[in-house]
Amino acid sequence: MKSLIHKIQSHPKYARVFEWGKIISIAGSAQMLVQATGLITGILLIRLLPTKEYAYYTLANTMLGTMTVLADGGISSGVMAQGGKVWNDREKLGQVLNTGLELRKQFAVFSMLVALPILIYLLWHQGASLWVIGLVVVTIIPSFFAALSDSLLEIVPKLHQDIKSLQFNQAMVGVMRLIISTAAIFFFPFTFVALLGNGIPRIIGNIKLRKIANKFAFSNASPDLEYKRSILKNVKKILPGSIYYCISGQIQIWLISFFGSTESIAHIGALGRLTMVMTLFGVVFNTLFEPRFARLPNNTKLVKGRFLQLLGILILVSVLICGLVWLFPAQILYVLGKSYQGLNYEVLLITSGSCLALITGTVYRLNSSRGIIPNPYIFIPSIIITQAIVLSIIDLSIVTNVLWFSIIVSAAGLLIRVSHFYLEVGKVEKKITN
After folding, report:
1. Closest CA to 219 of 375, 97, 128
2. Contact 254, 396 (CB under 8 A)
3. List of E strands, 121-242
4. By the number of CB atoms within 10 A of the CB, which of 99, 136, 192, 207 ranks highest?
5. pTM above 0.85, yes or no
């Protein structure tokens, strides 16, 4: 039997299948642990935090995402694109990485100046006291500074497919977050405590992540002006879309924050936790497939074929997930506790929207990794027109209407991005070749 298995594995037709199976099993099993700890942590936060405190936590997390996106502005996509060209040159890869980190620090100042005042206002609008607002603002900063570097540092091991080290580090951070957050919240059920429980493990994880990246990229390599120009070209194309995403990507929270109650914010935040399983698939795709997609040779037929395969896998996974939620909504909601029972229709809608967001986000990253970025002055107005039409015919005080709004807008964005890929992929490859 062993000899038969060895013959099958050594056969050229099946060797690549076994190789991919091994890689996916490593990444998938580690990510299952990462997402499991994240899901358990999220569920415990929902159950242990009072509804009002969890609403504040949802707002803070939403703004943390906004700050991170603004601080990136397309830098990570630029680093991935440039790193994919020099991934096997340690000196040049170090220059690309450090150039991106330097730019990210500069963008961080702008991000905080824009986002923190908005967070302060939203917390005040929902009835938070001044001392609560102050503690939330102070304790969100560690997570933000950790986010400044981790997404860039991860690019290096991703390009070299050092999946084991990367996944082990992520798993360690997840377990630490579970232990610290749960222990702290059990005794001190406050938003700022939950934020600290999230930020401290990420900082520790980043220290280890830097050591992993140093194996493949010189840590003391000087930022390069030419790489900076190339990355900023990418930023100029992506930044308008990033700014728009800060508004549109979290628009259901924004709308509920302005037009709904604190309870509605908590409901949306809690239901969003249940869709964390999508993050598992998103991370696996970003870790395994995006770097390989970026490294594909300039062959239009090959690139289109791989893109279609990945899109098909994402759609199939999304259909399966939505089907399970449709069949077992009550059982899924049970884990959230009594305060969130009866939201069967809402959980199906938010799952559908999350699946669309997963597909759209992955398509965006695949496109960006090949330098295929839609003109923001065409893309953004198209989505804004779609939003305006939908907003004119729905009542935003109803949670389900807000969820439908997100689904329709995500579907429109996905259609535009897929269409743009097939229209532009050949042109981009010809430019690179010439």
Report:
1. 97
2. no
3. none
4. 99
5. no
- The tokens describing 84, both together, are 């994919």
Residues 89 and 123 in one domain: yes
Note whether residue 242 is domain-resident.
no
**Contact (Cβ atoms closer than 8 angstroms) between residue 227 and residue 203:** no
What are φ and ψ of residue 292, in 5° steps? Answer: -70, -35
Strand, coil or helix: what is 97? helix
Q: pLDDT digits over 163-222, tens only?
A: 778 878 888 888 888 888 888 888 888 888 888 888 888 888 888 888 888 888 887 888
What is each CA distance from 296 to 64, 284, 304, 307, in whole angstroms? 33, 18, 11, 11
pLDDT digits (tens, 9 = 90+) for 104-158: 888 888 888 888 998 898 888 888 888 889 999 998 888 888 877 888 888 888 8
Q: How far apart are the first and last CA of the chain?
A: 52
CB 157 within 8 A of CB 216: yes
> How far lies 272's CA from each of 183, 228, 389, in Å?
23, 37, 25
Is residue 189 domain-resident?
A: yes
* Tokens 């050594």, residue located: 10
Question: Phi then psi for 129, rounded to 5 degrees?
Answer: -75, 165
Overall size of the chain counted in residues:
434
Considering 184, 203, 236, which residue would you say is the last residue of a domain?
236
371 DSSP assignment: T
Distances (CA, A) of 87 to 90, 92, 145: 7, 8, 26
The total number of structural domains in the chain stands at 2
Taken in order 232, 237, 238, 240, is the CA torsion positive or negative? positive
Domain end call among 214, 236, 258:
236
> In degrees, to the nearest 5, what angle opens at C-alpha 210 toward C-alphas 205 and 214?
150
Residue 288 DSSP label: I
Q: Which domain holds residue 424?
A: 249-434
Nearest Cα to Cα of residue 390 among 377, 401, 399: 401
Inter-residue contact 154 to 283 (CB < 8 Å): no
User: Do the beta carbons of residue 273 and residue 48 sit within 8 Å?
Assistant: no
Query: In terms of domains, do 262 and 343 share one?
Result: yes
